[in-house]
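[agent] plan:
  1. take the single chain provided in the ticket
  2. run structure prediction with default settings
  3. attach structure tokens to the ticket
  4. add a short note for the reviewer (M.T.)
[agent] executing step 1
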Amino acid sequence: MLWVIGRAWVVFLSLVIALLLSRVLAAPAGRLRALGWKPGLVAGVTLIGFLVALAVTLTLLGFAVGDEAEDLGPTLTEAVDDVEEWLVDDAPIEISRVDIEEFREDFRDTIRRGARSSSGSIVSGVTVVGEVVLSLIIGLIVTFFAIKDGNRFARWLQRQLPDGRRELAERLGVRAWRTLGGYLRGAAILGLVEGTIIGAAVALTGGRLAIPVGVFTFLMAFIPILGAIVAGAMAVLVALATGGTTAALIVLVVVIVVQQLDNDLLAPVIYGRSLELHPVVVLLAVAAGGALFGVAGTLLAVPVTAVALNSLAEVRRAPTEVQPASTSGG
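[agent] step 2 finished; step 3 output follows
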């Protein structure tokens, strides 16, 4: 299966895009169907409305971020240089400039390996962009038909199974659909909370680039554990370069507190049963996804793992556990 996915990556990515968009748009599409709209009109209005809302959101973000986004890269570079200077000159352990250069080179090699294709050759930037654009186009087309004819296709697929397996297949589909929705909703809520608080902390401590930091933190919430570490590190580095050591320390404390509160209090309530995964399972899933499929793999690893494990849990349930309770009187 992994070999086929690697060979037909554009098709697989298109299907994943369509699945995620269909899940996001399921609620508004359902409301329009309840009003009696025809399936084709529901699909068209829902998808076009989503694209318009996305374009407006990105435009507003562009105005809000503005020139700050261009300063983000140089600011991070400046902060990393400051940290390196401290490690070489003032760190309690002995670290040489050569050690740091070797670490940098190893890091660059890791990034290069992550950009390798399944055949082992470096994928050119033009090829990657072309594949992503093609996947987006195909994904939007498939999303339209998924919203329009998704229920009919699911029933047809169910009819292809033996009679004894149809009820189980329906349960698996419902469980997987609910799990995916819970993951997307939970990640978005947690990302919004973390991005708002950490971005505000950067701004209040005198640092710049608070909006890019908040947006990046929101996006990284869709990569559990590793995303939080990367986003927190970036926030601290930005605060160090633009606000000084005191600002960086305050932001570091805020990052640790916010992420602990999210993990221990908010996440179990928001995700519920949709993401009952041990942190070790999440970490290994993200690492494996990144090793196999690069950045896209890290993004998709957790929802795929959550759907797979929840589906297995549904398979293990006895049929009597899902039968409706009797309504006869006693």
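[agent] step 4 note for reviewer: The two ends are 52 Å apart (CA to CA).
[agent] ticket updated
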